[in-house]
Amino acid sequence: MNIYHKKNFVIGLVLLGMGVCCLVYVFRAEIIDLGWVYVMAVSLIGGTACVVRSLSREKARSDRLKELDERNRANLQRAKSMALDLISWGGLAAALILAFLGREESGPGPMSYVGAGLFFASAFGFIAQSLAWLYLDRHS
Length: 140
Fold this sequence. Notes:
Blueprint: H1 6-28, H2 34-55, H3 57-68, H4 70-101, E1 103-104, E2 107-108, H5 110-138
Antiparallel strand pairs: 1-2
């Protein structure tokens, strides 16, 4: 038995480990929570699929070709950039809403502190995006 795609194999093992941990938690819990059952099922099925694909020579070759295709790489980078935009702007909006809802007459409430944390997280996202843009602008 050869492992033809090591990255998928490791991802599959991590997913299988997470599924087994969820399985143990579900059996030890007194009340069965459907959320944990769904996470367990998706983890076990996804992990099994990744491990099986990594052990097949043809499927591993197909996965590698998809990873190396320039159009797929460009689409992946575009999707990551859009996700960072969405997270940054969503975090900023949530920070402003929480800051507004958390104000009290006696001083800032706990919601204000959560809003401040979200503000700094979204600011970090904007700074990271700006630095990446500057780097890519100079090296292209």
